[in-house]
Amino acid sequence: MEDILINRVAQSALTMLNLEEFIHPGERVVYDIKDNLFHGLMLREKDFREFIKTHDWTQYAGQNVAIICSVDAIVPTWAYMLLASKLQPHAHRYVFGNLEALEQELFHEAIAGLDAEQYRDAKMVIKGCGEKPVPTYAYVAIMQKLLPVAASIMYGEPCSTVPLYKRPKA
Asked: Is the pTM of this model over 0.70?
């Protein structure tokens, strides 16, 4: 008699969620305001406003922009706000902070847009290993989104999971 191989993973009621699919495809760029500083020390309003008027803001179309100042300098808060007002019509997303802060905002946006109800009472597996890096905070954020609705949550691959949460029986 022949042994028949049965793919139990394919037959299981597990719902796989791959956070790699939440990675925004847009380019990530850094806008460093240090390039607008007078002698690398401070921002001069007149010069900065002239730059704001003449700069080609369309180059940021669809991009994700991290706004930073990489040097210790005097930069008034309104300068960052003015940059934001010029990026708004063009960039997909912009944040004050480094590329890590930008990535966190992009994941936050994607996870916030997820309809958690589609996972009501589901046995979830959050995919753990992949080809693209997924930051740890995305895994924490997805837990916050799924815990109120999922029956159980595991981490890893369907064939090898780490149990994380199981809803208590009522």
From this structure: yes
